[in-house]
Write a structure and sequence with these properties.
The structure is a single chain. This protein is mainly beta. The protein has two helices and eight strands. The chain has helices spanning 2-11, 79-84, and strands at 21-26, 33-41, 48-57, 67-73, 92-98, 105-113, 118-125, 135-141. The strands form two sheets. It has a four-stranded antiparallel beta sheet, with no helix packed on it. The protein has a four-stranded antiparallel beta sheet with strand order 5-6-7-8, with no helix packed on it. Strand 2 and strand 3 (48-57) form a beta hairpin. The N and C termini lie far apart (68 Å).
Length: 157
């Protein structure tokens, strides 16, 4: 039975089927919406774990866009890991999840701030809701890790 559920999950046929869910908070008996708490380990910087809270509606075609993210160092962060990430200003998408059959997706993007030696993780919705794009930010400083490099500060004239 477990193999069947795993197969269905991998095929994306069962909504809410996830092995990264670490919490589920009901919003009451008169609603089908819950706050789902998911855990994500950065696939490249494996010493970083993020927890994302988002609203999911079991009987709805569209989940709300709100989400919250908190990322922390939970293991070693090495110079090799930092060397392997995208260092452009737009960074890398490290996670995405469909929130609607109407092309709304929640994404988590990793962006590196070399001047402050900090990894930034931004969670955002790809569809405008109530006049704004919902987003949340968390940072993980490299200070105290093997990956920390003293930033070169250029003098401004």
């Amino acid at each position: 039975m477990k193999k069947l559920l795993l197969t269905i999950c991998m095929a994306g046929l069962l909504v809410g089927c996830s092995d990264d869910e670490v919490g589920d908070v009901s919003l009451g008996i008169f609603t089908t919406k819950d706050i789902k708490l998911n855990m994500l380990v950065d696939p490249i910087v494996t010493g970083v774990t993020c927890h994302v809270a988002s609203i999911e509606a079991d009987l709805s075609l569209s989940d709300p866009s709100d989400s919250s993210i908190a990322c922390r160092q939970t293991g070693e962060i090495t110079p090799e890991m930092i060397a392997a990430i995208d260092k452009s200003k737009s960074g890398d998408i490290v996670f995405k999840k469909s929130k609607s059959i109407f092309f709304k997706t929640m994404k988590i993007r990793r962006i590196f701030d070399p001047e402050n030696q900090t990894l930034m993780y931004v969670s955002y919705s790809t569809k405008e809701t109530s006049g704004s794009f919902k987003h949340s930010l968390s940072t993980v400083p490299l200070w105290g890790t093997k990956a920390y490099v003293t930033p070169v500060v250029s003098e401004q004239q």
